[in-house]
Structure formats: structure tokens, C-alpha cells
């Protein structure tokens, strides 16, 4: 499935969560596309068994579409958290970058990102781990702090 189609599913799920319904005009507004483009995409998604859509009616996700939309949203959220909490990217840029990254990432890479974030976020101390604090210092200064270069064996 194309990243465009994934964006439509994610947008439909977001609208349903935020305002209770998804309409063609709202989907178009959020994705910055015209209604005929939305209708064409909905026809494709309908043919794939991912959405229900009646002309001039609301758009709804099938169970399969809902599951796929949630997986896409999960990828997006993990990437935003990584970019904002680990790399300290500003939230607006992180949202934009996550949107592009979520579609291109393999399942294997996503699993590793998820495990990495779980590892960092479940550190026993509530503070940022020392190795990430060292990374922050390196980003700011370009100098290593409290660590040595790893020797290749």
C-alpha cells in the first residue's frame, strides 16, 4: 500500500477519534487535497476492503482498515517520541519527519525502534540516562563527555 493510502487511513482514524466522524471535506482539509482526490482514494481503499464510504456520507474504517490505521499511528507515535525525546527535535519538525519515516521503515526496523524506546522509557531512574545526557552534551558542544572511544577488535 502506498504512503498516500496509509495517510488517508491514519487521517480517517484521527478524525473519528477527535470529532466522532470522518467526512470527505475534513479528510481533504487535513491532507490538503481536493474532494475529488479524496473520493478517488476512498474508492481504492473501499476496493481493498479497508473503508466503508457512501457517496455524500460518512467514511468509516472496516475492522481490517482500523487495524492497519492503528499500526500506522503506532509507527508515527513511536517515531515522534524518538525524535522529540531522544534527539530533541522540535515537535513540529518531528511530526513532519515522522510522517515521512513511518511509511518507509521495515517491520524489523520498527520493532527495534519500539524496543529501543521501551528500553529508554523504562529505565529505573526517572531522569534521562547518563549516556543520553552525554549525547545531549555532544550535540551541543561536539565534545565527548565521560566516555572513551570504542576500540575496534
Average pLDDT figure: 89
Number of domains: 2
Q: Indicate the CATH class of the largest domain.
A: Mainly Alpha
Helix content: 55-70%
Q: Please describe the biggest sheet, giving its number of strands, its sense, and whether it closes into a barrel.
A: 2 strands, antiparallel
- Fourth-tier CATH superfamily name of the largest domain: Iron dependent repressor, metal binding and dimerisation domain
How many helices in DSSP terms?
Answer: 7
The radius of gyration over CA amounts to 20 Å
Instruction: Give me the CATH fold name of the largest domain.
Output: Diphtheria Toxin Repressor, domain 2
In terms of structural class, how would the helical and strand content be classed?
mainly alpha
- How much of the residues is beta strand, in percent? under 5%
What is the N-to-C succession of helices and strands?
Answer: HHHEEHHHH
Query: Shape from CA axes?
Result: elongated
Give the CATH architecture of the largest domain: Orthogonal Bundle
Distance from N terminus to C terminus (CA atoms, Å) equals: 43 Å
> Strand arrangement, largest sheet?
1-2
Describe the structure.
This protein is mainly alpha-helical and 153 residues long. The protein folds into 2 domains: 3-67, Arc Repressor Mutant, subunit A (Orthogonal Bundle), CATH 1.10.10; 73-141, Diphtheria Toxin Repressor, domain 2 (Orthogonal Bundle), CATH 1.10.60. The chain has 7 helices and 2 strands, in the order αααββαααα. A hairpin with a 5-residue loop joins β1 and β2 (59-61). The radius of gyration is 20 Å and the shape is elongated.
